[in-house]
Amino acid sequence: MDARIYYQNIRARREELAARFPRGCCVAVSLPSLSTHATPGAACEVSTQIMARLITEGSHRLATDAETAAFHIEMDAERARRAPNSISRLRLLYDETMNERMA
User: Fold this and answer.
1) Beta strands 25-30 and 60-62: pairing type?
2) Which residue has the higher pLDDT, 23 or 97?
3) Which of 20, 88, 92, 96 has its CA 20 to 30 A from that of 77?
4) Could you read off the pLDDT of 48-69 as tens digits, one per residue?
5) Residue 25 forms beta bridges with which residues?
6) What is the rounded average pLDDT of the residues 2-10?
7) Residue 60 in contact with residue 51, Cβ under 8 Å?
8) Is the dihedral of CA 15, 17, 18, 24 positive or negative?
9) Is residue 40 within 8 Å of residue 71, measured between CB atoms?
């Protein structure tokens, strides 16, 4: 691929993602790749700039709404598990519960 076209594609995707995700971050899900030995289905939160490059290179895809929600629930649970004391843990669990009720 020509470098000029490559960067044009990245800029176009970055603009699309910036409009869709005003906070500037989204969840990426890895695709199977024999050349990089990536684990398919692994999720991580990245900036929209990095996501634009990952989609253009074909190594990741944008997570669905359900995958994004599951990812955030898993991260919240991990934060609660690693909280240094029980009060912090209870505060995180309370916030998670209230966010679920508001949604």
Assistant:
1) antiparallel
2) 23
3) 20
4) 999 999 999 999 999 999 999 9
5) 47
6) 94
7) yes
8) negative
9) no
Which ranges of the chain would DSSP assign to H, the alpha helix?
A: 3-20, 48-57, 65-81, 86-102
**The token pair that represents 75 in the structure block:** 């991260």
Residue identified by tokens 């609660």 is: 80
Q: What's the N-to-C CA distance of the chain in angstroms?
A: 43
Q: What are phi and psi of 74, to 5 degrees?
A: -65, -40
Domains parsed from the chain with CATH numbers: 1-63 (3.40.5), 64-103 (no CATH)
Question: Mind giving me the DSSP string for 70-82?
Answer: HHHHHHHHHHHHT
Question: Are the CB atoms for 52 and 17 separated by under 8 Å?
Answer: yes
Cβ count near 11 (within 10 Å): 13
